[in-house]
TrEMBL record:
<dbReference type="GO" id="GO:0005975">
    <property type="term" value="P:carbohydrate metabolic process"/>
</dbReference>
<dbReference type="InterPro" id="IPR017853">
    <property type="entry name" value="GH"/>
</dbReference>
<dbReference type="InterPro" id="IPR006103">
    <property type="entry name" value="Glyco_hydro_2_cat"/>
</dbReference>
<dbReference type="Pfam" id="PF02836">
    <property type="entry name" value="Glyco_hydro_2_C"/>
</dbReference>
<protein>
    <recommendedName>
        <fullName>beta-mannosidase</fullName>
        <ecNumber>3.2.1.25</ecNumber>
    </recommendedName>
</protein>
<dbReference type="GO" id="GO:0004567">
    <property type="term" value="F:beta-mannosidase activity"/>
</dbReference>
<dbReference type="Pfam" id="PF00703">
    <property type="entry name" value="Glyco_hydro_2"/>
</dbReference>
<keyword id="KW-0732">Signal</keyword>
<dbReference type="InterPro" id="IPR050887">
    <property type="entry name" value="Beta-mannosidase_GH2"/>
</dbReference>
<dbReference type="InterPro" id="IPR006102">
    <property type="entry name" value="Ig-like_GH2"/>
</dbReference>
<keyword id="KW-0378">Hydrolase</keyword>
<dbReference type="InterPro" id="IPR008979">
    <property type="entry name" value="Galactose-bd-like_sf"/>
</dbReference>
<dbReference type="InterPro" id="IPR007110">
    <property type="entry name" value="Ig-like_dom"/>
</dbReference>
<dbReference type="InterPro" id="IPR036156">
    <property type="entry name" value="Beta-gal/glucu_dom_sf"/>
</dbReference>
<dbReference type="InterPro" id="IPR054593">
    <property type="entry name" value="Beta-mannosidase-like_N2"/>
</dbReference>
<dbReference type="GO" id="GO:0006516">
    <property type="term" value="P:glycoprotein catabolic process"/>
</dbReference>
<keyword id="KW-0326">Glycosidase</keyword>
Length: 805
């Protein structure tokens, strides 16, 4: 008989102790305590307008999910597979305890063959994670992390305990599907696939495991006019060569060609009884770590070609990740693709994402760096933890290994740095703290089940020195810019690979006002401050404003615009600077792309998918062709990452602080494909003492324009905001034409100030010379919103000129 798998989703109830006593609610599986209580109207949705305070009691609440599974009439073996239990679960069947778990990142299988003759009462009890973690902390002693939450004592999504951008939920629940499986002659338990290219020949490594009398496995690899059929034995680990199959390439280097792999288990009669289907792409991945001078490269290479990573860091897209849909993944990654991103790092304080995430990356040619799930903490090296980490790693490698987009594994985030630099050694008092996971357990799992991808023990990481914060090699994290100095300091760094850097700013006005239930944003408001999780975050945002502007901004649209503006400037300067170091730096991975709740954070896209000004700065900086005025080196840098030459008339302008054009010049330039050029500012302009002028530098080459203020001191004087605006509503779109009557710097439209729903603007932070004009579109979610936005067009039109006047 064929293997039959049925999802177990019906009839669940949730029982738990609430502040109002013992309650029972209808439950959804997959789900969580929080989402079931949201559905019941007990709490608000923290992703929209719920608060941590109203939900704090859930952290300490034990809970139980119950349902009844009907009797099964057929013969053979029966089992329940739990794809994900979050986290401290006790599974009972008909009152008898069958399974106990404490790892949300792996699956568990329970044989129930002796219980199917009658109806089966399934109960999954969850111990509240926080009290248990605190208990273990007391028993085992401190294992440090930067927060006041003991998230590192068992295998649970670290950021559910809160992070410096996210809320504390500490939820529990059946967060992935449960499957009732019936089988007789045989079953495929594991199908591990990894691909490589050896001596120019595509190869597929297939590893299978299963049970039963059926042992023949048929493999069919097909697509693009090619097909290869192979028969092998269940339990084998072998390499299949695929001569003539096309390679998978990352974006910008060719087609992301994918093939279908069908792995079928056959019984003695040759009938198919179980099947696993995956898509693969053939490519070879390596790291270029060649030496040059006293430095060492850290470059990801695919099919022998260096891929300069224009990347972002990805966090879980919802506090309750079971809610993230295939469509949501597709929309977010398509958004990244639209701004030229070619690399995503999946950060180690979250989850191994759904296959839907990696499927989209496979299709679009976006490479993925995957952290194993360790973040910013020391972890106990107990026998139980070793067992869990080993099994978790094996399952993750087996599930994700077939994805062509996955090009690098990493042991975790900032754990080794924490031990070396964050004062952990004294409280640990000689205890093992997780290093053996990163140096032994994880590499051993990869050697056994993958072997086709590079691995690093953590990030940041040095490939030549013991100190992981060494900038002459490996991956580097840069956080003094946000914490201390201001974004101009980015240009003093020369990293090998900038894996984390970012600047904090408010999410969309509409998102934040809805979250706090107010019509205005005031940086001094305690309710708003609850959505800023960074250490001293509101103070650091304020200090950033002081560094940039001589006027004080504390509330309203002016504060909102100024704070978003500083974040956008930081993102643009950082990304462009690292790209300008093409010869020595091989990637910039911005912290961070997305948010999981309404936040003042480092994200460029907020939790409602509203684009911050920093999103547009990222788009500008990641274009194939970029212009950048370097503040430190006082030069104009031209970057051409396109596959064709860039030839056009370069125009440059020097504008005084009152908007007068002091000097203009032009020259023909031509850049070869994937090359750079630079001109000293003193070479472009004849004006003496230009570095001391309080004014602005503007450059344009073809359709690309950049502008930057000459001085780093706070701006105190700008010409008046003098523009003429014409607007027209066409359906759900507002078409805006703006004429500049003077020099206008960082012209931005902020329709979120008045719109009721999500809006998208075609261009932001625009620089216009006197007499120039621009057409901008605002796409609204309804015709009514479009009319409202158009009627208040003057109110939503901002610039540095307006801000300072």
């Amino acid at each position: 008989m064929k293997v039959v798998r049925r999802s177990v989703t019906e009839g669940f109830s949730l029982a738990l102790e609430t502040p109002q006593g013992h309650k029972v609610f209808p439950a959804t599986v997959p789900g969580s305590i929080h989402t079931d209580l949201i559905a019941a109207g007990v709490i608000g949705d923290i992703r929209i307008d719920g608060t941590e305070a109203e939900q704090e009691w859930i952290r300490n609440a034990d809970s139980a999910y119950s349902t009844q599974i009907p009797a099964q009439s057929g013969g053979g073996n029966y089992e329940l597979k739990f794809d994900g239990l979050d986290t401290l679960a006790t599974v009972s069947l008909n009152g008898a305890v069958k399974l106990q778990t404490e790892n949300m990142h792996r699956a568990f299988v329970l044989d129930i063959s002796d219980s199917t003759s009658g109806a089966m009462d399934l109960k999954v009890e969850f111990k509240a994670p926080l009290p248990e973690a605190l208990k273990r902390e007391k028993e085992m002693g401190p294992y440090p992390n930067p927060y006041d939450m003991p998230y590192n004592y068992f295998r649970k999504m670290a950021c559910s305990f809160g992070w410096d951008w996210g809320p504390i939920t500490v939820t529990s629940g059946i967060w992935k599907p449960i499957w009732l499986t019936q089988w007789d002659e045989g079953i495929l338990d594991e199908v591990g696939i990894v691909t490589d290219v050896v001596d120019g020949v595509p190869q597929l490594r297939l590893r299978t495991a299963g049970r039963g009398s059926a042992t023949t496995v048929e493999v069919v690899i097909s697509g693009h006019g090619k097909e290869k059929r192979v028969r092998t034995t269940l339990g084998s680990d072998e390499v299949i060569t695929c001569e003539g199959f096309e390679l998978w390439h990352p974006r910008g280097f060719g087609q992301a060609t994918l093939y279908l792999v069908e792995v079928t288990l056959l019984n003695a009669a040759g009938d198919a009884i179980d099947e696993v289907v995956k898509r693969v792409g053939f490519r070879h991945v390596s790291l270029d770590q060649s030496n040059f001078g006293d430095r060492q490269m850290f470059a990801i290479c695919v099919n022998g070609q260096r891929v300069w990573a224009k990347g972002v860091n990805w966090i879980p897209d919802d506090p309750f990740p079971h809610r993230v849909t295939q469509e949501q993944y597709a929309d977010k990654i398509a958004d990244l693709y639209s701004v030229e991103v070619n690399a995503i790092r999946v950060w180690g304080g979250g989850i191994y994402e759904s296959d839907d995430f990696y499927d989209v990356c496979d299709e679009l040619g976006i490479i993925v760096w995957q952290d194993f799930l360790f973040a910013c903490a020391a972890y106990p090296e107990t026998p139980e933890m070793f067992t869990e980490v080993k099994e978790e790693a094996q399952q993750a490698i087996t599930r994700l290994g077939s994805h062509a987009s996955l090009v690098m594994w990493c042991g975790g985030n900032e754990c080794i740095e924490g031990f070396q630099h964050w004062g952990w050694k004294e409280p640990l008092a000689g205890k093992a703290w997780g290093l053996n996971f990163y140096l032994d357990t994880l590499p051993a799992a990869l050697a056994a089940f993958d072997g086709s991808r590079p691995y690093i023990p953590g990030s940041p990481f040095s490939t030549v020195k013991e100190d992981v914060k060494d900038f002459s090699s490996g991956t580097n994290h840069i956080w003094d810019v946000w914490n201390e100095t201001g974004y101009q300091r980015y240009e003093e760094y020369s990293p090998s690979f900038s894996a984390e850097f970012g600047y904090n700013g408010p999410g969309s006005w509409r998102t934040l006002t809805k979250a706090i239930g107010k019509s205005n944003l005031d940086s001094r408001d305690p309710d708003l401050a609850t959505h800023q999780k960074a250490f001293f975050g509101m103070d650091k945002v304020a200090k950033g404003l002081v560094r940039e502007f001589s006027k004080e901004f504390t509330q309203g649209p002016a504060w909102y615009f100024a704070a978003q503006l500083v974040q956008a400037r930081a993102v643009e300067v950082g990304l462009k600077h690292f790209r300008s170091q093409y010869e020595t730096c091989s990637g910039s991975v911005l912290w961070q792309y997305n948010d999981m709740w309404p936040a003042i954070s480092w994200a460029v896209l907020d939790s409602a998918s509203s684009r911050k000004l920093s999103w547009y700065a990222m788009r500008e900086a990641y274009r194939p062709q970029v212009l950048h005025f370097s503040g430190v080196e006082r030069k104009l840098i031209l970057i051409n990452d396109a596959s064709v030459a860039w030839s056009d008339l370069l125009k440059v302008h020097l504008v005084g602080k009152n908007g007068e054009v002091l000097e203009s010049s032009s020259r023909e330039v031509s850049l070869e494909s994937r090359s750079q050029a630079s001109f000293a500012v003193s070479e472009l302009f004849k004006t003496a003492g230009i570095s001391a002028i309080d004014g602005y530098l503007i450059a344009e080459l073809g359709a690309i324009r950049t502008a930057r203020r000459v001085l780093d001191a706070p701006v105190d004087e700008v010409c008046a905001h003098n523009v003429d605006i014409q607007e027209r509503v066409v359906g759900e779109q507002v078409q805006v034409h703006i004429d500049a009557n003077c020099f206008i710097y960082e012209l931005s439209l902020l329709p979120e100030l008045v719109a009721l729903d999500r809006v998208e603007v075609s261009a932001e932070r625009i620089t216009l010379l006197p007499g120039e004009s621009i057409d901008i579109t605002i796409d609204c979610s309804s015709a009514a919103d479009a009319k409202k936005v158009a009627s208040r067009i003057e109110e939503i039109t901002w610039s540095l000129n307006r801000l300072m006047n």
